[in-house]
Amino acid sequence: MSLITPDFGLLFWMVVIFGVVFFILAKFGFPIITKAVHQRTEYIEKSLREAEQARIEIERFEGDQARILEQTRQQKAAILKEASDERNALITKAHDEASQEASKVLQAAREQIDSEREMARRELRSELSALSVAVAERIVRKELSDESAQKALLDRYVEEAVRDQVN
Q1: Between vectors from CA 74 to CA 71 and to CA 76, what angle results, nearest 5°?
Q2: Is residue 13 part of a domain?
Q3: Residue partners of 7: CB distance under 8 A and separation at least 6
Q4: pLDDT number for residue 134
């Protein structure tokens, strides 16, 4: 027996054993293997379909997310604008109220100053007239100590009164 050329009997038995093993594998092994390969192929195809659906769903969610984000930005801008407008309105209202209150206080102060000024004038006039009467009384007493001086003074007052009425 040589290593390069096998014997005819050995070759026969090898073919018979190979046929038996092949028949057993074909009868029992290959269907299981092909079934497993087929199941694996179906599982991979199903996974690919699910992945494609998930990708489509993710794209839809991304679109929804972008839309919602834009709506949120617009709402935020609207809220900020509304708050700014309201703040400006409050500031303007407070400024107007402060101006009105300041003008009321200023008017009241002016009225009070005017009334106090008028009261001071009256008081000054009253004191001045009392002082004038007192001075005049002293002067008249001094000058009217004799009768001729009294007559001269009366004549002078009458002339001044007549002159004042004429003018």
Answers
A1: 110
A2: no
A3: 1
A4: 76
Numbers of helices and strands, H then E, in the chain:
3, 0
**Angle of the 30-143 helix axis to the 147-166 helix axis, nearest 10:** 130
Q: Is the pLDDT of residue 48 over 90?
A: yes
Query: How many other β-carbons are positioned within 10 Å of the β-carbon of residue 25?
Result: 13
C-alpha to C-alpha distance for 69 and 75, rounded to whole angstroms: 10
> What are the tens digits of pLDDT across the range 126-138?
887 777 777 777 7
Structure tokens at 21: 């093993």
**Is 12 part of a structural domain of the chain?**
no
Q: Number of folded domains in the chain? A: 1
Tokens of 77: 């801008």
Question: How many CB atoms neighbour CB 87 within 10 A?
Answer: 10
| Placement of tokens 């004191």 in the chain | 127
Q: Which residue range(s) make up the domain with 74?
A: 18-161
